[in-house]
Amino acid sequence: MKVKVLNLFSGVGGNRKLWKNVEVVAVENNPKIADIYKDFFPNDTIISRDAHSFLLEHFKEFDFIWSSPPCQTHASFRHNLCVKFRGSKPKYPDMRLYQEILFLKHNFKGKWVVENVKPYYKPLIRGQLLQRHLFWCNFPIIQKEFEDSGLRNLHKIEQLQKLHGIDLSKYKLPNKRQILRNCVSPEVGLHVFECALHEKQLQFDGVTVSSKC
């Protein structure tokens, strides 16, 4: 049996790229990005609507939930460089991040993970740091070394596409660079997913799903 996965704020699906034996519902608010995701993963169900409200309404329908709420208002790069030195306007941190962590922790019975960047402030809820990401989840993520991507020094779209194995060249989008920088590395996405399955040798629909993390 396939693992039923909810992939929230899915973007173009960097985190999902290497998952196998899954039945995925992806939710992405931007219809143009949702269309690209559908091109990349035609067997997934892609829904173009607000992911935050979708989670509240449908969380019980899945075995595993991955959520990547918007990170810009938490990012140290924006706050410490753009706001302090480049004149960008400061913004309230988007608290959907912590709403989802608390909601899933106290209501969802399956495995879940919420991903974001390491913030410019001390996290309000302690997470697990892996590569450049901070993860909140109900399973341990085993530390693993990944090839250093040098993401901060990659400024060209072609470089970012090669890094993630994602080709956006045929799509007309005004913000390709930001879309690619927002992607979770497929290798990191696979590692986190496998750690979730391995942690308890989860039972999905009565079938044991095991994975070597």
Task: Explain what you see.
By secondary structure, the protein is α/β, with parallel strands linked by helices. It has a single domain (3-208), classed as Rossmann fold (3-Layer(aba) Sandwich), CATH 3.40.50. Helix content is 32%, strand content 18%. The protein contains seven helices and nine strands. It has helices spanning 31-40, 51-58, 76-85, 96-107, 157-164, 176-181, 186-200; strands spanning 3-8, 22-27, 45-47, 64-67, 111-117, 128-130, 133-137, 203-204, 207-208. Strands 3-2-1-4-5-7-6 form a seven-stranded mixed beta sheet, sandwiched between helices. A two-stranded antiparallel sheet has the order 8-9. α1 (31-40) links the parallel β2 (22-27) and β3. The chain is globular, with a radius of gyration of 17 Å. The relative contact order is 0.17.
Sum this structure up briefly.
With 213 residues, the protein is of the alpha/beta class. The chain is built from 7 helices and 9 strands.
Structural class of the helices, strands and pairings?
alpha/beta
- Tally of structural domains: 1
Amount of beta strand: 15-25%
Q: Give the N-to-C terminal Cα separation.
A: 20 Å
Low-confidence stretches: 202-213
Largest sheet features? 7 strands, mixed
List the secondary-structure elements in sequence, H or E: EEHEHEHHEEEHHHEE
Spatial strand order of the main sheet:
3-2-1-4-5-7-6
Named at the architecture level, the CATH assignment is: 3-Layer(aba) Sandwich
Features:
213 residues; alpha/beta; Rossmann fold; 32% helix; globular
